[in-house]
Structures are given as structure tokens and as C-alpha cells.
Write a structure and sequence with these properties.
Number of helices: 2
Shape: globular
CATH topology: Methylamine Dehydrogenase, Chain H
CATH class: Mainly Beta
CATH architecture: 7 Propeller
Number of domains: 1
Oligomer: single chain
Largest sheet: 5 strands, antiparallel
């Protein structure tokens, strides 16, 4: 059952827009709430005024809305940029290197790094594409990867304890990015469809072929494949719309058109209902680039328009519209407490973390020091 009707949703979205715009003011905060996040970030190094480099970190952030502060509970340097994170039982999480990645890290519930894994000695030579997903029984880990010789997409099936590969399945496309499970345990993979150089740079965009593919979670057999009419829309990030009677898969899109105006006007959300992949809205609020996607209230989705500096919501009762609810510089990482959106959405930006809630005042906390959060984070138990 949906938690909000259309009128309630529109009123909440409009209220959120008026209050959640980043203007540098003090923010009203309701007391008694904390969140613990697994995250990745980059911190500048070097003295002020000297040439600046940066170091990448992974670790745990504590958001204390009562004390109005963010604490870095623990941090660990990593050799290259991190990207996707996967929460695990016991309060720990797994971190996947950004494309073209070669490492995985596991942190336990105390934030200690307990597993270092590298793909350097695996054959055939493949690189990680930034995300991972656990199997329905919790025994295996699926990692989307790219073959360095052919450029074809693969999913490695790994022992979740050791992270060693035990099987490999083709994704029937290129540039596989994120994968999720459906209710049957089948694996849905977003093939971004972009040809890339060995260091991950885009090439030959006129040959893009993005698709959503469904694979048997036990055998890797292809069960279905769907494409949008516009080949220049890259399917990137995936999420289910929470605990709803009508589950929908939200797909965050990134436009790759040659013409800047067409790219900025492109849609950023596709929806899959099990049979059909389609574009419910063409509103250009996010300038053709959604950095992340999370469950929104009432069976909808929240998306981060990173280039537009806007957080937006989509609701199935008003499918042709996007509703702006926050303005944040470089907004990207999203998380929905309880995984439904009913308890709001956390949005990471350049200056700090904001919280939009459909029934409570919005809030924002500054970063504790100079740090640039990466594209994703994950709520920890």
C-alpha cells in the first residue's frame, strides 16, 4: 500500500523545495537521530598555497542530527578511487574500486579492513566496473567486470567469504555497471553500452548499445534483455522502489549525446516493471545526468542531478513529472533509511550532507573537514 496519495506527495515535495535549497543558512534539525554510513571520499593533501594532490579514503561516517555534526569514525587510505559499497551482515560493508578497478576491500562492523582482494592475478584479465551484489542465499558475490582485451561485459561469481571467482557469465553487452536481484533471485544488470579505452575513457559513442539484461542467478542463462529507443542513454544505476505492492525497478540514466543542448534535455529515469522498460518522464530538471538513485516515498524514486545540483523525486501517481526537493552543489550519493523513502532521503553534496523528509523539516550538516565524497554511500546497521 502506498504511504502517500498524490495530493499529499505534491504538497510535501513543494514544501521540501522551499526549505531544502542550499543557501548557506542554519538548518532546523529534529533531535534524536543518528545515521552510520559506509562511504568513500577524497581529501586534498599538501599545505595551503602549495601544489595540491589528493588521497582517496574509505571508512565510516557518523551523522548526529541532534549534535549537528558529522564525525569520521574510521578511515583507511586506498590506492585508487572507490565507487560502489555493499552493506553486509554485522554492520560491515564491501567496497568496490571505481572503473577500471582492480581491488575489493571488506570492512567489519568496527570499521576495520579485514579483506584485501586484488584482480591482478586473475585470468582472463578483467577489471571491476564499480559495483557488487550478494546472491539471494548470501553465499556468492556478483561483480560486473570488463574484459580488457575484447571490451565485453562479464559478471564474476565469487565466494562471498574469500572473494575468489568460481564462475563467469557474459552480460551480453559492454560496460556493465550496477546489478541487483529480483524477487526470484535472478540478476538484473545495467549494461552501460559505452566502449572504453583501457584506462576507462569513453570512445566511439556513436556505437553505444545500452541494455538491461536479466540473468538466471544460478546458471547465468540470459532470461531477457531490454533496450530504450534512444541508444545514447546509458543505463547506469539500479534500485527497487521499496516495500510496495507493485515493485518497479528504477534505472538512473546518463545521456551521452554529442549536442550539449540535447544532452542537457535528456531524461534521467527509466522504469522497468518486469516486462517493459520505458521512460515515464522527460522533464529536464537533472540536465541529462543522474549520479545515483534511491527509493523515494510512496513507491517512487529519488535521483541526484549531480551536474544540475538538484535532488529530485519521481512518484508513480504523477509519472510524467519530476519534483525538485533540494539544491546542493555536486549532489550525488543518496540513501533511504529503511530502504523505502518513507523516512526521507539523505543526500551527499560538496559542502555536507542534507536530509529531505516528506513530513519533517529538512536539515543539513557540514563536513568535518575538507573532503569530497564519492558517488555512493550505504547505510550500516
Amino acid at each position: 500500500m502506498r504511504t502517500m496519495n498524490k495530493r499529499m506527495f505534491l504538497r510535501a515535495a513543494a514544501t521540501g523545495l522551499g526549505a531544502a535549497t542550499w543557501l548557506g543558512h542554519a538548518w532546523a534539525v529534529d533531535a534524536g537521530h543518528t545515521h552510520r554510513l559506509g562511504a568513500a571520499w577524497r581529501r586534498p593533501t599538501g599545505a595551503p598555497g602549495s601544489p595540491t594532490s589528493a588521497q582517496d579514503f574509505i571508512g565510516v561516517l557518523q551523522l548526529d542530527w541532534d549534535a549537528r555534526r558529522v564525525d569520521v569514525v574510521v578511515e583507511h587510505p586506498v590506492p585508487t578511487r572507490a565507487h560502489g559499497l555493499l552493506a553486509e551482515p554485522g554492520g560491515g560493508f564491501l567496497v568496490v574500486a571505481a572503473r577500471p578497478g582492480t581491488w575489493l576491500r571488506r570492512l567489519d562492523g568496527q570499521g576495520r579492513v579485514v579483506t584485501h582482494h586484488t584482480l591482478a592475478n586473475e585470468r582472463p584479465a578483467r577489471t571491476l566496473d564499480g559495483h557488487a551484489m550478494a546472491s539471494a542465499d548470501g553465499q556468492w558475490l556478483y561483480t560486473p567486470e570488463t574484459d580488457q582485451r575484447s571490451g565485453e561485459g562479464w559478471v564474476s561469481v565469487r565466494d562471498i567469504r574469500t572473494l575468489q571467482p568460481v564462475a563467469q557469465w557474459p552480460t551480453h553487452g559492454r560496460d556493465p555497471h550496477q546489478c541487483v536481484l529480483d524477487a526470484s533471485g535472478a540478476l538484473l544488470v545495467a549494461n552501460g553500452g559505452i566502449r572504453r579505452t583501457s584506462d576507462g575513457k569513453k570512445r566511439d559513442l556513436d556505437q553505444m548499445d545500452s541494455s538491461l539484461v536479466r540473468l538466471d542467478g544460478q546458471t547465468g542463462e540470459r532470461l531477457g534483455q531490454w533496450r530504450l529507443d534512444d541508444p545514447r542513454l546509458s543505463l547506469r544505476h539500479l534500485v527497487w522502489n521499496g516495500d510496495t505492492a507493485n515493485p518497479l525497478l528504477g534505472v538512473a540514466l546518463q545521456a551521452e549525446h554529442d549536442e550539449p543542448l540535447r544532452r542537457a534535455a535528456a531524461p534521467v529515469l527509466a522504469v522497468w516493471n518486469g516486462d517493459r522498460l520505458h521512460l515515464p518522464t522527460h522533464q529536464p530538471l537533472a540536465q541529462g545526468y543522474a549520479g545515483d538513485i534511491a527509493p523515494g516515498p510512496g513507491g517512487g524514486f529519488a535521483l541526484s542531478g549531480q551536474r544540475a545540483g538538484k535532488g529530485v523525486l519521481w512518484h508513480p501517481d504523477a509519472p510524467e513529472q519530476l519534483f525538485p526537493v533540494a539544491e546542493l552543489q555536486e549532489v550525488c550519493a543518496l540513501a533511504s533509511p529503511q530502504g523505502t523513502g518513507r523516512d526521507g532521503v539523505l543526500l551527499g553534496g560538496h559542502r555536507g550532507v542534507a536530509r529531505w523528509h516528506p513530513r519533517q523539516p529538512p536539515a543539513m550538516l557540514p563536513w568535518p573537514s575538507a573532503m569530497v565524497p564519492d558517488n555512493h554511500w550505504v547505510l550500516l546497521s
